[in-house]
Amino acid sequence: MMTVHTFIDEEPETGPSTTPLKPSKATSDMGDANQWTLIWYKFSRNKLAVVSGFVILFFCLVGLFAEVLAPSVPDASRPQFTNAPPQNLGFFVTDADGSSRFQLHVTGYTMEVDPASLRRSYVVDPEQIVPVGLFVQGAPYKMWGLFDANIHLLGPVNHDDTMYLLGTDRLGRDLLSRLIHGTRISMSIGLVGVSISLVLGVILGALSGFYGGVVDTVIQRVIEVISSMPTIPLWLGLAAAIPLTWSPLMVYFIITLIVSLFGWTGLAREVRGRFFALRGEDFVTAAKLDGSSERRVIFRHILPSLTSHILAVVTLALPTMIVAETALSFLGIGLKAPIVSWGVLLQEAQNVRTIANASWQLVWPAGAVVVTVLAYNFLGDGLRDAADPYEA
Amino acid sequence: MLRYVIKRILYMIPTLFGLSLIAFMIIQLPPGDYVTSMIASMQDSGANVDPRQVERLREIYGFNDPIWVQYFKWISGILLRGDFGYSFEWNRPVAELIWERMGSTLAISIASLLFVWAVALPIGIYSAVRRHTVGDYFFTLVGFVGLAVPNFILALALMYFSYRYFGQSVGGLFSPEYVEAPWSWGKFVDLLGHLWIPIIVIGTSGTAALIRVLRANLSDELHKPYVITAKAKGLPGYKVVLKYPVRIALNPFVSAIGWVLPELISGVTITAIVLNLPTAGPLLLRSLISQDMYLAGSFILLMGVLTLIGMLVSDLLLALLDPRIRFT
C-alpha cells in the first residue's frame, strides 16, 4: 500500500504511533476507535454475555415497574385460596356454537375440602372461564410511593375474579405479584450493596496500591482478616443484632450495609494490583511532573484507566450480595414482612410439606435467584474478557 | 523450611487478633445485656426485682467494666483456661456445648473437601485434555449451575426430590433408630446413607470452582514445549498428561484448602440449618435468635480459627510441594 509522505525538514518524530506525521503499520478500520468502542466490539462478540446483559436489564425493568407489572398488590390475601396451584393463561375460548375466538383467559378453580383432614385441594375447572385483559383496573397502589394509580398490565377483567398465574402462598397471596415486587428489593439490594462496596474497595485499594508501605500492609491485613472469615456465620452474627423494633426500611439498609461490608475486599485487591502496575507508567510520572496533586493523579489519571476492570469485578460481586441477602432472609434474620424479597419468599418454602404440596413456592423464587446469579456471572465474565481490548 | 514455618505462624497472630475482635464485637452488638433481658422476663412474670440485686448481678458478670477490660477478661479466659463464657440459655458453660458441634462441623467440612478433590480432579483433567468437546461443554455448564445455585436452594431441591421419589425425608445424620444407639457397623452405614446429601450440597460450588481452575492451569501447561517433546519421543498419551503437567497443575488443589475451606464452613452452616444436621449451624442460629451471645460468639470465633488453621496447613503443604515458595 502506498503511503503519502509529507516532507518535513526536521528529524522524523518518534511520538505515539497515532500522530499523522508517522504513518503506522497497516491498521484496520478499528484502528482509530477509542477504548470504549473497542471494549464494546470485543464484548458484543460474546453472545452469552450479551444475552445475560439483556436478562439483567429485564429484571431491573421488572423491579422498576413492579407496581404496574404485578397483577395485584403483594399483600392482598384471599383466605379462601390458600396454596392454590398456578392457573394457565389461555388465548382462545370456544363459544357455545363451537366457534373459537381470541380472548385472554384463565380457567377457574373448583375447591374440594377433604372431610377427614380438612385439607383443601383445588382442581382446575375448564368450564369456568375468567376473562383476562391488558391494562385493566385492579387493586389501587401508590406508584413509586408518589402518586395513586390502579392500572395493571395484566389482570382479570372483573376485579373480583382470581388470576394466579404462579399460584398462591399459604395466606392466599398471589405469588406472581410477590415475585415481581421481590425482584425490586432483591435487585436493588445487590445494586445498593455493590455501590457501597465500590466506594470502600476503590478508596482503600487505591490508597493501598498508590502509597504502598505501611498503609498497604495495614489494609492488606484487614482484608486478610475479613476474607478469611466464613461469611455466613458472620452475616448471621451481625444481622441477628438488628433490633426487632426497627422499621422494615431501616432493616433493609442495615442488611445492605452488612452484605456490602464483606464484599469490598475482592475489589480492593483488584484495584490495588492495577495501581501497582500503573503507578510506574509514563503517563503517571508525566502527571506528577506537571504538578498534579496526589488526589488528582489518583482520581483523574489512574482510576479512569481501570474503569472497565472495576466494572467487571463489580458485576461479578453482585450475585454474591444477592445470594447473601436471600440466605439471610431465608433463615429469618434478614428482611421481614411487609418487605418482600426472593429470600422472604423462599422462607415460606422451608419445610418439606410445603415443597411437596405447593412446589411452585420453591420453584419460582429459587429460579429467579439462580437465573439472576447465572446471568450476572456470564455478564461479568464477558466484561472481564473485554476489559482490556489492547491485550493480544 | 523452618524459617518459613515460623514466619507463617507469626503472620497468623495479627489475623487471629482481628478475628477475636470481630467475634467480641458480635457478642457486644445486641442492645442491652443478658441481665437486662433477665429482668424484663422476671418483671413479665410478676416477680419483684431488687435494684441492688441487679447491680450485684452486673458486677458478677462484669457488665459494668469498660469495654477493653471486658474484652481482656473474655480473651484471657479462652486462652488461659479454655473458658468461653457462660451460655445463659442452656445454663451451662459454653465450652461444654461447642466441642461436639465443632467436631461434626469439622468432620463434614473435611468430608466435603475430599469429595471436592475426588470429583474435581478427574473432571478437570478430562476438560483440559478434551477442550471444546461435548463433554467439556457439559461439565462447564454443570459447573456454572453449581456455582450459581446457592447451597440452601440445592438442599431444598434435593429434599424435594428425595421426598418425591424415594419417599423419605432427608433431615438429620441418622435414621431415628440409630440416633441413640452405640456405634456399630449398621450405624456407620446409616450415617453414610444420610451424609451424601449434605456433602453434595456443600461440595458442589467448590467443585465447580476447582474444575475451572484446574482446567485453566492444565490447558496452559499442556502447550508447553516439554509436553510436546514428551509426545514427540513417543510417551504414551496418558503418561504425557499425568506424569508432569498434572503434577504442576495440582498446586491449586492444595492451595484450594485456603479459599475453599471458608466457603465449605459457610456452606456447612446454612446447609445444616436446612437439613437439620447436628453441627454448629443450627445451634449458632438458635443462639443468635435468643441472643445467647457468648455461645454465638464462640462459634463464630472457632469457625474463623478453623479456616485460619486450614489456610496455614494449605500454605505449609504448598511449601513442601513447591520449593519455589519456601525460598522466596
UniProtKB/TrEMBL annotation, chain B:
Subcellular location(s) of the protein: Cell membrane
Keywords of this entry: Cell membrane, Membrane, Transmembrane, Transmembrane helix, Transport
What is the protein's membrane topology class? Multi-pass membrane protein
* PROSITE patterns noted in UniProt: ABC_TM1
User: Per the database record, which ranges form the ABC transmembrane type-1 domain?
Assistant: 102-318
Which GO biological process categories is it annotated with? Answer: transmembrane transport
Membrane-spanning parts: 9-29, 106-126, 138-163, 195-214, 253-275, 295-321
What is the first-listed, main subcellular location in coarse terms?
Answer: membrane
Tell me the Gene3D superfamilies matching this sequence.
Answer: MetI-like
Keyword Transport annotated: yes
Q: Which residues form a coiled coil?
A: none
Keyword Transport listed? The answer is yes
GO cellular component terms, alphabetically, are:
plasma membrane
UniProt lists the family membership as follows: Belongs to the binding-protein-dependent transport system permease family.
- What is the official name of this protein in its record? ABC transporter permease subunit
The organism's taxonomy opens as:
Bacteria, Pseudomonadati, Pseudomonadota, Alphaproteobacteria, Hyphomicrobiales
